[in-house]
Amino acid sequence: MRRWLPGFVALSAIWGASFALIKVAVEAGVPPLWVALWRCALGAVTLWTILVLRHERVPRDRALWGHSAVVAVLLNTVPFTLFSFGETRVSSVLAGVMNATTPLFTLLFTVLTVAEERRPGARRLSGLALGFVGVLTVLGVWRGIGSG
Q: Whole-model pTM?
């Protein structure tokens, strides 16, 4: 058995469960901003714990912290807030599926905007196609769009 498989399955379960837990929180009346705050806070605590357990030092470079803050706002704070707000309107399954399209759109965006990536290889195109088929499978497109 491949050594990475158990960790991959565990992380998939944790990541997937987060959308169900977001739905539980917003249906219980927790405002989307608070859901996003707690999600980011728990992630930060996890990262700090890993840093301590590995006996690693906190980076001292101000530029790194500045860049990290921008990335945190754009890739954590804003999306987590929007996902929480979105789950007040749609199911957690749909939110999870939409999130699953992120790597697909990232690859597409990269191919369109980064000169060095203009010609994706067969392996990347196969991965993109497989990911797209996976999203369609989870959505159950053969049953039609439906009223939801």
A: 0.67
